[in-house]
UniProtKB/TrEMBL annotation:
Location in the cell: Cytoplasm
Broad class of where this protein is predominantly found: cytoplasm
Family to which this protein belongs: Belongs to the TRAFAC class OBG-HflX-like GTPase superfamily. OBG GTPase family.
Name of the protein in question: GTPase Obg
Function: An essential GTPase which binds GTP, GDP and possibly (p)ppGpp with moderate affinity, with high nucleotide exchange rates and a fairly low GTP hydrolysis rate. Plays a role in control of the cell cycle, stress response, ribosome biogenesis and in those bacteria that undergo differentiation, in morphogenesis control.
Cofactor: Mg(2+)
CDD domains documented for this protein: Obg
Amino acid sequence: MFVDIAKIFIKSGDGGNGCVSFRREKYIALGGPDGGDGGKGGNVILKADRNLTTLLDFKYCRKYEAENGADGRGAKCFGKHGEDLYIKVPMGTVIKDAESNKIMTDLSHDGDTYIVAKGGRGGRGNYHFATPTRQAPSFAEPGMPGEERTISLELKLLADVGLLGFPNVGKSTLLSMVSKAKPKIANYHFTTLKPNLGVVKVEGVPSFVMADIPGIIEGASEGIGLGLKFLRHIERTRLLIHVIDISGSEGRTPIEDFKRINEELKNYSIKLWDRPQIIAANKNDLLYDEEVFENFKKELNKMGYDKVFKISAATRQGVDDLIKEAARILSTIPVKDLEIDEEEKYVEEEKKFTYEIKVEGNVYSIEGSFVDRLLQSVNVYDPDSLRYFHKVLKDKGIIDELKKLGIQDEDIVRLNNFEFEFLL
């Protein structure tokens, strides 16, 4: 089964908690705090693997979590770091943030890696908080939580040449003639239900990779048919071969076919529409009036397309000349990575612990991630811990902000389930 789009949930490991511990050994007085730091949580890392060709694995497993860091221990023993989780994806996979649909990275080369979620930092042990006036701190930092997000994986095949055209114009036949690919071939529309890749090898020219996608029909840019669904697979191509049924066996005129497909291509992506095109006038073996091809070629020349080949994929007539010209043009076009516009790029937001102050009468409620982390790190029932708690509130500017809001003596300050009276 060919699967080229998947959505998965990933979570990096949480950092381990710092340890509260004191050194107590015989004959060693006043050993002091020796709680170790927690270990760092494992990262979630995506890695491109040339041995994978589809995103099928992600159809059955949609949740991936890295290992948490271990908690610190006494004697300044640091907790073990969580193991990084490597997730293998096919080469050519574009990673997007599912919420914003912004592109995070493009893994187009074998072995490319990207840290999609960083592990949480381990919390500091209580020995870090010892000072000349606070010699026995009974608190430590909790570990930072890991990152979690839903990401989209979008496979865009790596091909040099893409075959373009209506259904049943002979794209699959052409691919089967110039490569060892074995696409399904039959005389009805949408025989090709998934993209096919083939390595083209013709004597006297360098080999290259060709991609055949399901045929495009009019209205494809609005979601009609199958072609638009797979157009992403020719976004990386450097050259397009536009296959046209010159015989008109489907009851359409060749020039109208050409204009309709290019219009759908333009509606989908201007970049793809601007890509160099070679026109392959196929099914020449069914053409009984040579003037049809000559008129077709003249019309295309007027439109600025001078690479027009009369071929028959079924009999291989003219195919070698077409492939040699494709190879020649490819040699003049440098290989580029997928172009990503600035507005399409995902920008990592700086993670900050935030808070919000709400006033109801004489009660000042402080809420947010800053409050959650502060309360986790201190023991509000211990005098030393409580002094550290008030110092953090002052250093972070919360006390000054409460004064600006008009707080008075004996007003209540509430942080989650903990509250105290304010004294100016």
